[in-house]
UniProtKB/TrEMBL annotation:
WD repeat segments: 21-62, 67-101, 110-152, 162-203, 204-245
Phosphoprotein found in the keyword field: no
Classification via InterPro entries: WD40/YVTN_repeat-like_dom_sf, WD40_PAC1, WD40_repeat_CS, WD40_repeat_dom_sf, WD40_rpt, WDR48, WDR48/Bun107
Name of the protein in its database record: WD repeat-containing protein 48 homolog
GO molecular function, one term: ubiquitin binding
Signal peptide range: none
Length: 632
């Protein structure tokens, strides 16, 4: 029997420029439209769901609010309960229920899935049902009426599961009547169930690659599937066979929409193209328009009278395209029928490349528009923005300094912004001099711990935070982080990262979040270290010291203990002791002008520490060998 893997708790935070993220960063994965309020909901790879007023005259006025509670990509969303509730599925393994008309509050979190949740399906009549599926190969069926009544005290939810899928599920659909549910997976086939009995009805074979999109008609007799093999297939569920194939795309098909009558197909995918195809002639498809990036999602504003189509892509912007009701033939020259979008909700650039500098504090980034910026982890903010066209490698080179500091955090940018993560295994490994950390009022030999300082900054407002000696704390007046900074607490087990709690620096002071933090924060965060400014003893017989010792101290040791021990010891007679002490103090203040230190024939800077010399200059095992030479 193998030993059980240890559960680890990680603390992460996001570095953002502003308190409100009004624009998407990165892919937009899913869209929903509320015909009552004319509001559009969009979900993307930046972990945020956004609400837009499509009646606004500009995209800046269109932003209503952001719904933030997920810790990873939001892959799919469904509107239900007449638009008053929104259900979301995320790569953070959770399904969440939101109140769309009460400040976008997150009402409950479902943690039934064990891996990334990729897709949702919805049935409206006679009872509202939602199904969820993902990479854990499981499909769960939820009663919407039950989900909307879940509270913090009444949080027991029962669910039905549909069994039989052997591979990760990437697409899911359910007819409006809730009599058929269909899943597409990397098995390259469709599986069909009756959600009323949870019994499997059929398997539909014919695709050669993963099935990424499914649409089913109202009575559950016909369905469409779009695949990575570039085809769209029309299936008869009763006959359990393919009755037609559309081959208009040159690459993977990722998005499908049909009108209410199930007579017209709208499709998009990796080739950037959006086509319209009549069910009466699957061999004749009309190119409507060409998007800038691969198409992720299509959404008809009115399926009964389709005249407008919202499109989400790998771009961070969302566009609404005008489409007429019926196809009137192909555009001249075989080009797209529509040249320009009618409305665009502009997105923001996302970070695509980053490099942690060797000071293990600053990070250089380049975003999707080529902008190069410098960020400070300790201050959780941007330090510099460089002119357009700046070479990232040159910025890195200009900001590198000669120092070796161990890694104490990890970085990711999968959500379009920098996400910094602290782990108990190395969070407290970076000790640096207080002066290097920016505390110029501290003694030369004072040391601070980056991880300890940062944790104190993150939880500065938390009533139960570790207090220490506040008067002497290095945090006084320094490293106070932006209040909007999101804090993510997760646990890792068997390579699966699952969220425990999400808050902000500001909200750690609230009664509800404060109580939750007491339950989820690990002990290594509650008591990071007994002292932030340790004292390290130095033996007199030889220099046996911590690797954090600065070379200035080594110089002083050489002067006092090796070169001139008698002079620095003082004199007991005639008041000479005071004079000798004054002279020794003056000499030590200018020690760099009196002694030189060398390692591997390279002159050493007095501001270096032994750790830097060992890793960057000595570069070998055994005792570190340093040579000294008095300056005449």
């Amino acid at each position: 029997m193998q030993p059980q893997a240890k559960r680890k708790i990680q603390i992460s935070f996001l570095i953002r420029n502003g308190s409100v993220e009004s624009k998407h960063r990165g892919f937009v994965n899913s869209l929903q439209f509320d015909p009552i309020t004319r509001n559009l909901f969009s979900a993307g790879s930046d972990s945020v769901i956004r609400q837009w007023d499509t009646a606004a005259t500009s995209d800046s006025a269109a932003f209503v609010r952001s719904l933030e509670h997920h810790c990873d990509w939001v892959n799919d969303i469904i509107l239900c309960s007449d638009g008053s509730r929104l259900i979301s599925a995320s790569s953070d393994t959770t399904v969440k229920v939101w109140h769309t008309r009460r400040n976008g509050a997150c009402l409950s979190t479902l943690k039934t899935h064990k891996d990334c949740v990729r897709c949702l399906a919805y049935a409206r009549d006679p009872a509202e049902l939602v199904a969820s599926a993902g990479l854990d190969k499981c499909i769960y069926l939820w009663d919407v009426n039950t989900l909307t009544k879940v509270t913090a005290t009444n949080n027991t939810v029962t669910t039905s599961s549909l069994r039989g899928t052997k591979n990760s599920i990437y697409s899911l659909a359910m007819n409006e009547c809730g009599t058929v549910i269909i899943a597409g997976s990397t098995e390259n086939l469709l599986r069909v169930w009756d959600p009323r009995t949870c019994q499997k009805i059929a398997k539909l074979r014919g695709h050669n690659e993963n099935i990424r999109a499914i649409s089913v008609n109202r009575d559950g007799t016909l369905c469409l599937s779009g695949s990575s093999d570039g085809t769209i297939k029309l299936w008869s569920i009763g006959q359990q066979r393919c009755i037609g194939t559309v081959r208009c795309h040159s690459d993977s098909v990722w998005a499908l929409q049909t009108d209410a009558a199930f007579s017209t197909i709208f499709s998009g995918g990796r080739d950037h193209r959006v086509f319209r195809t009549s069910m009466r002639n699957l061999n004749d498809s009309e190119l409507l328009f060409i998007e800038r990036k691969p198409v992720q999602k299509l959404l008809l504003v009115d399926a009964d009278r389709p005249k407008q189509l919202w499109v989400a892509t790998w771009d961070s912007s969302i566009r609404r395209w005008p489409i007429d009701g019926q196809s009137t033939g192909h555009a001249e020259g075989g080009g797209p029928r529509v040249k320009e979008a009618a409305m665009e909700l502009h997105g923001a650039p996302s970070i695509r490349k980053y490099a942690v500098l060797n000071d293990k504090r600053q990070i250089v980034t380049r975003d999707s528009e080529g902008n190069v910026e410098l960020w400070d982890v300790m201050q959780c903010g941007r330090v510099s923005t460089f002119p357009a066209g700046t070479n990232m490698e040159e910025v890195i080179k200009d900001n590198v300094r000669k120092a070796w500091i161990p890694s104490w955090f990890s970085v990711d940018a999968k959500c379009g912004v920098l996400e910094v993560t602290l782990d108990e295994s190395d969070a407290f490994s970076a000790w640096v001099s207080a002066r290097d950390a920016g505390f110029t009022d501290k003694a030369n030999d004072a040391k601070v711990n980056y991880g300890g300082l940062l944790l104190r900054s993150l939880f500065e407002l938390w009533p139960h935070a570790y207090a220490g000696d506040d008067e002497d704390s290095p945090l006084q007046g320094f490293y106070s982080l932006p209040l909007h900074t999101p804090i993510l607490i997760r646990h890792c087990h068997d390579d699966i990262v699952r969220p425990l709690f999400r808050t902000t620096v500001h909200d750690t002071a609230s009664q509800s979040d404060s109580a939750m933090l007491r339950d989820v924060l690990p002990a290594w965060v509650l008591q990071p270290h007994s002292s932030f400014i340790p004292k390290f003893p130095v033996k007199k017989d030889r220099l046996s010291a911590t690797e954090m010792l600065q070379l200035r101290k080594v110089m002083e040791h050489v002067w006092e203990k090796i070169l001139y021990p008698a002079e620095t010891a003082g004199d007991d007679g005639g008041g000479g002791a005071g004079t000798a002490h004054s002279l020794a103090t003056q000499l030590l203040e200018n020690i760099e002008e009196r002694i030189e230190l060398f390692c591997n024939d390279q002159k050493l800077d007095s501001e270096m520490d032994l750790r830097t010399v060992k890793h960057l200059i000595w570069k070998q095992g055994g005792d570190l060998l340093i040579f000294y030479r008095p300056i005449k």
